[in-house]
Design a protein that fits this description.
single chain, alpha/beta, 5 helices
């Protein structure tokens, strides 16, 4: 069955490794990993972070690949500056899209998102967290890069 999948990526806490250079493959690899997880259907990907710290070429490649890029400024050295905007977008997305639908969160630390993901799963949304790039679990990293 085809279902909508929304991907929220905290691009600061789960950044692209410096030694990785095949940026154009990232979106395709995310979609392929979703298909392997039986998440088949339309996919939207949004990335949040301080884009001014990102190489503009990488940002351009991701944007042309269909990733919606959101500039988030860090306040007072707050390492979780993307959490509130992502939670805000998740809330409004859930209001606009009825379950069943898939939610994929790409971040290093899911603690700040646990309550929201739990509530969405209770409402029949399928949720997952992929700590793709910074994960100590190398097989998860290989899913995407």
């Amino acid at each position: 069955m085809s279902t909508l999948t929304s991907v929220w990526w905290d691009i600061e806490s789960c950044s692209i490794p410096k030694d990785f250079n095949n940026y154009a493959s990232i979106v395709g690899n995310i979609k392929a990993a979703l298909i392997r997880a039986n998440c088949i259907g339309e996919v939207s990907i949004s990335a949040y972070g301080n884009l001014k710290n990102m190489n503009p070429i990488i940002g351009d490649i991701l944007s042309r690949s269909g990733v919606k890029m959101y500039q988030i400024f860090r306040r007072n050295n707050d390492s979780n500056s993307s959490v509130i905007p992502i939670l805000h977008e998740m809330f409004f997305w859930a209001l606009e899209h009825d379950p069943p639908a898939n939610i994929l969160l790409i971040c290093e630390d899911v603690v700040d998102f646990a309550g929201t993901l739990n509530q969405l799963c209770l409402k029949r949304y399928n949720g997952a967290n992929f700590p793709i790039f910074n994960s100590p679990i190398n097989h998860i990293r290989r899913l995407v890069i």
